[in-house]
Amino acid sequence: MKENKTIKWVSIILQGIIAIMFLMSAGMNLSGSETAVAGAADMGYPASSVLYFGIVQLLMILLYIYPKTSIIGAILMTGWLGGAVATHIIHGDAVSMTIVPIIVGVVAWIAIGLRNEKLKSLFSF
């Protein structure tokens, strides 16, 4: 029983870390911060896109943290992170910039997989 509590808390903490990362990014985008606008411009996106990025990130993370929709949120997050990987590859960024979104995506799935019985049985978590 103690092991199950530990796994549950590891899952909650990992999911919380992912949620905080995306909420911070969404907040920066929704506020139209200079950092968000400059980052978007550096990647070739217009300044007007940051508001839409923030809305998508906020909706995605809300779906991810709500247990009944966490898989939908994780699927959307995987797509978002895949776009980040593609953008970094297109711009010839360092390998570390390309690997980070992949790691975040894997951790996001592990976090919900530790508590979701259907995912556990599917992937033998």
UniProtKB/TrEMBL annotation:
Q: Which UniProt keywords apply?
A: Membrane, Transmembrane, Transmembrane helix
Compartments it resides in: Membrane
InterPro entries according to UniProt: DoxX
Whether Calcium counts among this entry's keywords is no
Q: What is its main location?
A: membrane
Q: Name one GO cellular component term.
A: membrane
Pfam families this protein is in? DoxX_2
As for membrane topology, the entry says: Multi-pass membrane protein
Q: Which domain of life is it from?
A: Bacteria
Q: Which residues cross the membrane?
A: 12-31, 43-64, 71-90, 96-114
The protein depicted here goes by the name: Membrane protein
Q: Which organism is it from?
A: Portibacter lacus
